[in-house]
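Dear all,

This email documents one entry for the complex benchmark we are building for the journal club exercise. For each entry we list the sequence lines for every component of the assembly. Then comes the predicted three-dimensional structure of the complex as a token string, followed by one or two observations. Please use this as the template for your own entries, and keep the labels exactly as they appear.
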Amino acid sequence: MNLKTLCLGLLEMQDATGYDIKQMFEQSLNHFHAASYGSIYPALKQLEQEGLVTSRIESGDKHPDKRLFSLTGAGLDDFTDALVEAEPAESIKSEFLVQMFFAHLLNSHELAQKLEHMESLYTRKLDYLESLPDDDFSAGVRFTVEFGIASIRAKRSFIRNNRARLLAEHREQETGTVGE
Amino acid sequence: MNLKTLCLGLLEMQDATGYDIKQMFEQSLNHFHAASYGSIYPALKQLEQEGLVTSRIESGDKHPDKRLFSLTGAGLDDFTDALVEAEPAESIKSEFLVQMFFAHLLNSHELAQKLEHMESLYTRKLDYLESLPDDDFSAGVRFTVEFGIASIRAKRSFIRNNRARLLAEHREQETGTVGE
DNA sequence: TCGAACATGTAAAAGGTTACATGATTAC
DNA sequence: GTAATCATGTAACCTTTTACATGTTCGA
């Protein structure tokens, strides 16, 4: 599912600006999808040309003008189709696991650092997800938040429980041919 | 980290053809990175032009000719640098969680189907990871395999433990405005 | 006064997927 | 005989990122 389609979905929840949509990607969607301004604004523009969304300018007194987008009926149909049609999947790109996979090319210090970095990254994400209020959300959104919490917790726990062992095994395998 | 860089790493482990590299992506790397032939072959070609890998043709009696790639010294340096320099991160694109996020646009049957589909997808991935032998791997590779097992198990458990609740809440919120 | 937040957008480049094209061998 | 596996590659397209460009307001 591409960004254009995703934008339709977000606009089904409420009218929004490109900026708002970026916020949503950094907040509730953060643990399972990303998007940058450079893709969001062009996406909205195209969607409007296709008649799947409409926009109007809203002038705040103090703030810059906003272009507020709304979903059209055709847009909702399009999104619903895409949602039903897509087969559930998940793709992961993990720089962290690449680094672990090739741990033998890192020295002990670097390896320890990567592990710590990732643990604290997970902690930050968890803190955010756990701070979200349970109430204002639909059942589906709550599911995604709790799914995120469960999966990130599991990953952080794995790091905590296996770091010492990995580091010990790594030191054993350090032959002096690599690193300092 | 892009595909070209990743190929260098895989060639550090052993000489390989484009086909072999594709296999690795479908096997041990499957749970944290993907790549298609259409990106692998051009990547290897470019790496050879840059002097980071070399290749030789190997003629099997029965099988088609293979182009076996080897890592050069410069290639190893390049990869090691990239590995150390990159900051550990992880990005996820989950069609499944998008579907859950917008569960209110699905009917109960579709929702149940998506959940079941994802559960069985996780089961397949787990079966594969759990079938891998523990021994032949370096500490780092073992870490990534076990990390994958732990995180997929957590996600599958979450689905199993929360499916009934989600479905119940979903039925309650079904107002008749959407779906059948 | 200085940085963060609000707000929109473009252009070039990077990176990758999909589909196509080809063909032998092996296992069922 | 037919599907799967082995094996390599190209071309067109799609999508997204990065970097740039601009300007206001608010809080510390």
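Observations: The helical segments of chain A are 3-13, 18-26, 37-49, 73-85, 95-101, 108-131, 139-173. The mean pLDDT of chain A is 94.
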